[in-house]
Amino acid sequence: MPGEFFDDEDSAHLFQLVHMLQRSAMMHMGMLQDTEGKVHYNLGETKAAIDTLSMMKAKMAGNLTPKESTMLNGIISELQLQFVKAPARQRELENQVAESEAIRETFTNPKDGPSEIIADEEE
């Protein structure tokens, strides 16, 4: 693994940990499905993962190679950006789910489903 991308085994292990926190944050922002294919929104968990990565960055200041520092900064910045966008993404998903439920209801119980008048026959 070290020869592939990272300079040494410690760097590879560090970024395995970073990647676990990154995946957790992304999953709790609805960007990745869990192992059962479900989408979750838990911004408290997301914030905890981002805060942990930021703490690690502060505690490791001066001990990272330029490549490691650049990678860690990029991951934290991207997660922070996605964190800001997460509530809108959650609303969009909820609207899609509500829309698909309405469509399903229309086909299951056509008399009870939503309807609209497409054309007025009066002339």
Describe the structure.
This protein has about 120 residues and is mainly α. It has a domain at about 10-85. About 65% of the residues lie in helices and about 0% in strands. It has 3 helices and no strands. The chain has helices at about 10-25, 45-60, 65-110. Helix 1 packs antiparallel against helix 2 (about 45-60), helix 1 (about 10-25) packs parallel to helix 3 (about 65-110) and helix 2 (about 45-60) packs antiparallel against helix 3. The longest helix is centred in the last third of the chain and has 43 residues, at about 65-110. The chain is elongated, with a radius of gyration of 22 Å. The mean pLDDT is about 85.
